[in-house]
Amino acid sequence: MKRIFLFVLTNLAVVLVLGVVANLLGINRYLNAQGLNLTALLGFALVMGFGGAFISLLLSKTIAKWSTGAKIISQPSNQTEAWIVETVRRFAEAAKIGMPEVAIFEGEPNAFATGAFKNSALVAVSTGLLNNMTKEEVEAVIGHEVAHVANGDMVTMTLIQGVMNTFVIFISRIVGYFVDKVLLRNNNDAPGIGYYAAVFVMDLLLGVLAAIIVAWFSRHREYRADAGAAQLMGRKQPMINALGRLGRLTSAELPKSLQALGINGKVGALFASHPPIEERIKALQVLK
Q: What is the 3-state secondary structure (H, E, C) of the chain?
């Protein structure tokens, strides 16, 4: 609940900062004189940027179950399922969080954690992970996902996305209004084609920049989750071995909303949700 409060507070702070800066630079007075209600725009940016991210967070477990076909282990039907549930329980107790729901989904090696609250999260592993890794390596992967939950990464990543959305919406519409009213001298009350064209272009450009920033934070959280797994297990070698094996396997591609909190993801420079496996192993090797 504390992180949800932080989520709301940060988004409100972003809007407040935008408003103060606009007033200090005289942008507010100028835009008001030109017919743009900056306060209304700030409110719109807050609702759209914060609202969409918040709804996505609240629905994250439902979407994850539906998109991956994850089967919740409500009552273990075999020794493997019982072992997975007990491993998650042990790590959850060590991390001082509530017991997450535990699930298995069909697919190539991967795992993920999701949920709006760290005391009622979801941890899922794939059949490919169970079939291609040793028990100790699977245990390390589960520790990685529990560490994501304990670190509050689901809320943190949603918070960052919400802040980025707010900036994109606000700035792109300011630029659109400037292009339409100042550069193209549209004197009509209704926005002209210049406004819509500029907003479209700025949404694309700023959206790319926002995606780069979100991806950077996602990569940073992966290092922390790797270290968290090592701490939960009491040694780092199992996590190093698990990463090394993942590097030799073909990982399942998770839905976009889950990629940032999976054990492995696409690596593609600025837009990568995960650092290269080699870099993650190096970070663990020097970990004290």
A: CHHHHHHHHHHHHHHHHHHHHHHHCCHHHHHHHHCCCHHHHHHHHHHHHHHHHHHHHHCHHHHHHHHHCCEECCCCCCHHHHHHHHHHHHHHHHHCCCCCEEEEECCCCCEEEECCCCCCCEEEEEHHHHHHCCHHHHHHHHHHHHHHHHCCHHHHHHHHHHHHHHHHHHHHHHHHHHHHHHHCCCCCCCCCHHHHHHHHHHHHHHHHHHHHHHHHHHHHHHHHHHHHHHHHHCCCHHHHHHHHHHHHCCCCCCCHHHHCCECCCCCCHHHCCCCCHHHHHHHHHCCC
Please indicate whether residue 282 or residue 38 has the higher confidence score (pLDDT).
282
Of the candidates 153, 149, 82, the one whose C-alpha atom is nearest the C-alpha of residue 120 is 149
Token representation of residue 254 = 């998770």
Quick one: pLDDT at residue 37? 67
pLDDT of residue 186: 78
Of the listed 101, 137, 139, 145, which one is catalytic?
Answer: 145
The answer to whether 139 is a known catalytic residue is no
β partners of residue 123: 102, 113
pLDDT in tens, 84-112: 999 999 999 999 999 999 999 998 888 99
Of residues 25 and 127, more confidently modeled: 127
Q: Where are the domains of the chain?
A: 1-68+152-288
Predicted confidence at residue 48, as pLDDT, reads 76
pLDDT tens readout for residues 119-132:
999 999 999 999 99
pTM metric for this prediction: 0.78
- Measured CA to CA, the distance from residue 253 to residue 265 in angstroms comes to 7
